[in-house]
């Protein structure tokens, strides 16, 4: 991930496999869905965007038409032992992953299914926010504690709050919103 070097995934892929295979492996390793547009850019040590390798030709202007992920083997775009790629997923959210070749190994393990994630470091970001962290349980929590629709607790501005268990009157809602610190 671009913003956090402590979060990364090592993905092992065969040289003849395509960028589409790599695209799907990255999404799987971060537990993202595959519903959005995506593209790779061949890059350099300064992380400049070079030749584009895309899932499809999108409605945007190109300097040169992109290579297609399904037709482009990974090895065909490696020109350096430290080759880098920029992977952009979901153009609206603009997830940017910095991809770097870290090793070339000619031995293959016939028992493994390639590509595969060989190392996970750090917690993956949540693709759609906090809901993915807690799954369906979060919806229950949200609905249970939705203060906007609550029948007790905070009333409209200036409305007196109900008395607490000790019979003490609550403060007015606009006093609470005044930003006083409470311990």
Summed up, what is this model?
The protein is of the alpha+beta class. The protein is built from 4 helices and 7 strands.
Question: Helical residue percent?
Answer: 10-25%
The CATH homologous superfamily of the largest domain is named MM3350-like
Number of domains: 2
CATH architecture of the largest domain: Roll
What structural category arises from helix and sheet content?
A: alpha+beta
The CATH topology label of the largest domain is Structural Genomics Hypothetical 15.5 Kd Protein In mrcA-pckA Intergenic Region, Chain A
Number of E strands: 7
Describe what this molecule looks like in 3D.
The chain is 15% helix and 19% strand. The protein is of the alpha+beta class. The protein starts with 7 loop residues before the first strand and ends in a 7-residue tail after the last helix. Residues 136-166 and 168-183 have low confidence and may be disordered.
Which terms summarize this structure?
five-stranded mixed beta sheet, Structural Genomics Hypothetical 15.5 Kd Protein In mrcA-pckA Intergenic Region, Chain A, 15% helix, 2 domains, single chain, 183 residues
Topology summary:
Blueprint: E1 8-12, H1 19-29, E2 38-43, E3 52-54, E4 67-68, E5 84-89, E6 95-100, E7 116-121, H2 131-134, H3 136-144, H4 173-176
Parallel strand pairs: 3-4
Antiparallel strand pairs: 1-7, 2-3, 2-5, 5-6
